[in-house]
Every structure is written in C-alpha cells, then in structure tokens.
Design a protein that fits this description.
mainly alpha; 13 helices
Length: 332
C-alpha cells in the first residue's frame, strides 16, 4: 500500500487537506435553491464512503509495503474497528451541526468558530495520545488560533449589531457545539491504527481500512442523526424522504462531490499522520478555517455590509491563523 515516508511530503499532504476541508462546503452553495442541506447530506455521506472504498482497493491494496485492505480487515481486532466506527459517528454529529451552522451564519462564521475550537481541542487531545513535536511551538500556535477565534466571534457580534434584520445567534451556538465534538473524532480514528504504517501491528488497522470503517460509521449514523434533523430541522420546515428522490441529478452529484472533496482531505491527513504525528497532521489540516474564511469573506461576500472595524478584526483573525499554523508546522 502507499505509505508516506518523508516529512516534507507529509506536510504537503496536510496542506492539500487544508484546502479540501476548507473548500468542500462551497458545494452546499452550488445546489438548487430549493435543495435543502438535509437532503444534500445523504449524498455527501455516500461520497465519503465511495471514496474510502476506492482508495482501499487501489492505494490500500497495491505495493509491497504494509498490509492489503482485505487481509487487514480480516485480522483486525473488534476494539480497533469499533474505535474507527465511533470516530465516524462523532464526526457525523459534529459535521451535521457544522453544516446547519453554515446555513444559518455563513462559512466565514461557522468555520472559524467551529473548526477553530475543534483545532484547539483536537491538537491537545491528539498530542496527549501521541506526543510528537515541540510542545512550545504546537501549543503556542494553538494559543494564537484561539485568539483568532475570539476575534472572529467579535466580528460576528458586530455584524449582528449592525444588521437591520438581525443575525440569529443559533448559528454561533451550533458552531461552538460542533467544534467541541469535532475536536474528538480524529483521536478515535488514529487510535485504531498502529504508529508504524510500514510494519502494521497485529490487530491494528491500516489507514485505508480505518477510513472505510470510519465512513461506514458516518453513513449508518446518518440514518439516526440526519433522519432526526429532517423531522426537526434547525431552520425551515420538516423534510420528507420522498423529497430526496425528487432532486435533480445535478444536486445529487454536487452532494457526492462535496463528500469526495472532504474525504480526500481526510485520507491525506491520515496518511500523513504516520510521519508528521496526529497532532501536527490534524492541526495543520484544520487550517481549513483560513481557507473557508477567505471563501466566505472574499467570494461569497458574507461580511460585505460590515463596518470598517469589523473587516479589520477579520484581517487580524486571518493573520493570527496563518502565524499559528506556521508554528505548528515548525514544531517537528
């Protein structure tokens, strides 16, 4: 199977992860105006599962290194499979809340707050589980990112004050809850795998197997989480399952594309974690916040009506994120 052996390549893959994770949510804005994100989310989950299965039977099954997908899943301990599956469940709940927050508050709010909290919590949790890298640089970078989150929340508060119609606080609350959950899922997936991908441990999973089980956790738990969301949506009227089958082919394909983009980022992050370490890999990938904020601010014009002072806060937020991420990169 394909294994990352070079730290420089691992960092490059984490950067690609950052762009994938920060860009997939744009697909929610490309569907028909009548296509609800509760319906979009089914295709998004299917896109993730399809991507992991394709990777498992290609990059995960060819080459002399590691262990092939089918051989790996046959020898895996139940506890490790459950850990990867649990990671999918936790991620799914967090992501549903994040997508809801995007729909209410916009990308430039939901991502910096939700994913920013996830980054801080995730780096701490993953570093404690597998300490790799200079802790001063890692946690110094995390501290700057935490400050960036505060600035973004302040900018959102100013936008809310200046808006004639008023912006719902529900989006900000959903972002915070999502971030707290999002910071925990990666640990479960990383914990299901060994530390040396070239020589897989008995009972542990290879990255490709862990990703397939993780994706299965997302799709299966959607029949609980997303079904509840359809019946009691965060905004709008309830949605019926029959509405899903009335969607345009374009809407279904865009949803699958969103899942593929996010999953490619997740896959590259997991592959890179063997060389970069889970804390660095996860932390750098969550630089997606900067990418998403740029999309929201400069492309989708979500703060176009903001005052000059608000825009200064947003620029400071982006600068702190960039410096914080640079410190995380240099930590190893």
């Amino acid at each position: 199977m394909f294994i990352v052996e070079n730290y420089g390549l691992a960092i490059m893959l984490c950067v690609v992860t950052m762009f994938c994770w920060g860009s997939w949510a744009n697909t929610t804005k490309l569907t028909s105006k009548t296509w609800r994100f509760e319906l979009f989310y089914w295709d998004y989950g299917f896109g993730i599962l399809i991507t992991t299965v394709l990777l498992a039977f290609t990059l995960g099954s060819n080459g002399s290194a590691g262990r092939g997908f089918l051989a790996d899943i046959n020898q895996a301990d139940t506890s490790n499979m459950f850990s990867a599956f649990m990671g999918g469940i936790i991620f799914n709940l967090a992501n549903i809340l994040l997508v809801a927050a995007i729909g209410i508050a916009g990308m430039s709010v939901a991502f910096p707050v939700g994913i920013g909290i996830a980054l801080v919590l995730g780096v701490i949790v993953n570093y404690i589980s597998n300490p790799q890298g200079n802790p001063v640089l890692i946690f110094g970078g995390v501290a700057l990112i935490a400050l960036a989150i505060i600035l973004n929340a302040r900018a959102y508060q100013k936008l809310q004050t200046n808006s004639a119609s008023g912006v719902s606080k529900k989006g900000l609350i959903l972002s915070v809850v999502s971030g707290c959950l999002m910071g925990l899922f990666y640990k479960y997936v990383a914990g299901s795998m060994g530390t040396n991908f070239s020589i897989p441990e008995i009972g542990k999973l290879t990255p490709y197997t862990a990703l397939v089980i993780f994706a299965a956790g997302i799709v299966i738990s959607s029949f609980v989480f997303n079904t509840l969301q359809m019946k009691r949506p965060f905004s709008g009227t309830p949605v019926r399952f029959s509405d899903y089958f009335k969607g345009l082919k374009k809407d279904h394909l865009i949803g699958i594309l969103g899942g593929v983009i996010w999953c490619m980022g997740m896959s590259l992050s997991i592959m890179a974690s063997g060389k970069a370490g889970p804390a660095v890999s996860y932390g750098l990938g969550q630089g997606a916040t900067v990418v998403a904020a740029i999309w929201g601010i400069y492309v989708w014009k979500e703060f176009d009506k903001a005052t000059k002072g608000t825009k200064s806060l947003l620029n400071s937020m982006l600068l702190l994120y960039v410096v914080g991420l640079a410190m995380i990169i240099l930590s190893k």
